[in-house]
Amino acid sequence: HHATQPNAKVWKARLRTRDLLGIMNCVQCNVCRLHGKVAALGVAVALQLILGREGEGGDVELLHRIEIAALMTTAGKFANAIKFCTEMEHKYQKSAQA
């Protein structure tokens, strides 16, 4: 069984990703479901690149265009979230000094 092999963490990450995509099927709003699935696929692709099949990293050249698009979309969302947090932190620091 995969869960008892030395690379069990890789398999567990894949199973959790599959579970997350399955949960997204339960979302009623089509737009929310689409955004959620794209984000989940983007995170899954990032993990795939980091871990690969054996925990040694993945090959970027084996990605499909949909996976690349999901990865870029998710990276953009994370970048916007980090930018927003940074802006809010600066506003908080200015208000705390006043």
Description of the structure:
By secondary structure, the protein is an all-alpha fold. It is 73% helix and 0% strand. The chain contains 3 helices and no strands.
Compact description:
73% of the residues lie in helices and 0% in strands. By secondary structure, it is an all-alpha fold.
How are the SSEs placed, and which strands pair?
Blueprint: H1 8-24, H2 30-51, H3 65-97
Helix pairs in contact: 1-2, 2-3
Measured as a percent range, the helix fraction is over 70%
In terms of DSSP E residues, the strand content is under 5%
What characterizes the major β-sheet?
none
Helical element count? 3
Mean model confidence by pLDDT: 85
Low-confidence stretches: none
**Would you report the number of β strands?**
0
Global shape: extended
Rg (CA only) = 18 Å
Strand pairing plus helix content: what structural class? mainly alpha
Distance between the termini: 61 Å
Order of helices and strands: HHH
